[in-house]
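Action item from last meeting closed. Structure (309 res):
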């Protein structure tokens, strides 16, 4: 059926091909299809109405992308993918890849949809971006919205850290945007304020290490410091205590176990030493289960307390 429809109206088929097989009523009207022709397509099964003001070409799969496009077409140009659905589009950690959520301006009219539709009275152009062809909230606004929706602490932490890792936002950008959105009683602002204190790393493990540094009263290190040797990039390190010339790396539960990975790690460590860095590593277990040891040895290595023999 879909193949026959393509031959009947190639212009509509080309539009549908870029929209997960979906067409809005406005697009159908713009190509000059009459009401009688539209009814004929529906009667023959080539088109089916799937939401207010939205039609689908017969046979297209009902995927998450299909549902996101359906919502945007039905809600109109003043709508965008948001909350968990936007987090998934951005590729933020711990996102629900099946989520379908939208936001519209509070003054806008919304049709009845089978998906969650939020409203807002405070949206700026910088809050909206295009991600993989979909209008969506920026990563910064998505982080703030997740906190506002009372998602758990670990969920919002993961969103912040992955947005920073992916280069989609930064702690300063989030803090700056939060100040303009902050209002009396707005849920989530205090949570983000709290979580930004130990942000700047790229993972939960790096966040936990920064938390230990703060708790120990140690000056905060530079995060994700890039090192070069004779103009050549040699490493991006987790943490750099620049004055002491000390690099700290934290390794996850699995670590690097293959011979190639171990050789690469050794070369990286040697080149960091060539440029005058002392390199130390703490494991997942160290940071999460032996925090007192981490604090003590870090202070010793930074010369803040005598080395215990």
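Sequence:
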């Amino acid at each position: 059926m879909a193949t026959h429809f393509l031959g009947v109206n190639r212009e509509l088929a080309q539009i549908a091909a870029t929209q997960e097989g979906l067409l809005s009523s406005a697009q159908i009207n713009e190509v000059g299809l009459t009401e009688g022709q539209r009814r004929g397509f529906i009667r023959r099964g080539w088109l089916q109405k799937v939401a207010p003001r939205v039609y689908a070409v017969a046979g297209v799969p009902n995927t998450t992308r299909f549902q996101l496009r359906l919502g945007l077409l039905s809600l109109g140009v003043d709508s965008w993918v948001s909350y968990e659905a936007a987090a998934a589009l951005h590729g933020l950690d711990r996102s629900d890849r099946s989520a379908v959520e939208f936001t519209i301006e509070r003054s806008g009219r919304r049709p009845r949809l089978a998906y969650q539709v939020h409203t807002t009275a405070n949206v700026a152009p910088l809050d909206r971006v295009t991600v993989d062809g979909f209008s969506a909230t920026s990563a910064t606004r998505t982080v703030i919205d997740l906190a506002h929706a009372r998602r758990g602490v670990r969920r919002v932490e993961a969103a912040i850290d992955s947005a920073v890792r992916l280069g989609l936002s930064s702690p300063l950008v989030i803090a700056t945007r939060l100040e303009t959105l902050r209002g009396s009683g707005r849920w989530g602002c205090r949570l983000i304020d709290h979580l930004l204190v130990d942000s700047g790393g790229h993972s939960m493990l790096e966040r936990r290490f920064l938390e230990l540094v703060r708790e120990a009263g140690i000056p905060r290190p530079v995060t994700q410091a890039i090192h070069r040797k004779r103009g050549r990039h040699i490493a991006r390190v987790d943490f750099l205590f620049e004055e002491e010339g000390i690099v700290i790396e934290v390794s996850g539960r699995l670590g690097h176990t293959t011979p190639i990975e171990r050789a690469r790690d050794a070369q990286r460590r040697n080149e960091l030493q060539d440029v005058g860095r002392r390199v130390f590593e703490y494991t997942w277990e160290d940071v999460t289960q032996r925090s007192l040891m981490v604090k003590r040895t870090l202070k010793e290595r930074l010369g803040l307390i005598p080395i215990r023999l």
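Note appended to the action item: The longest helix spans residues 259-274.
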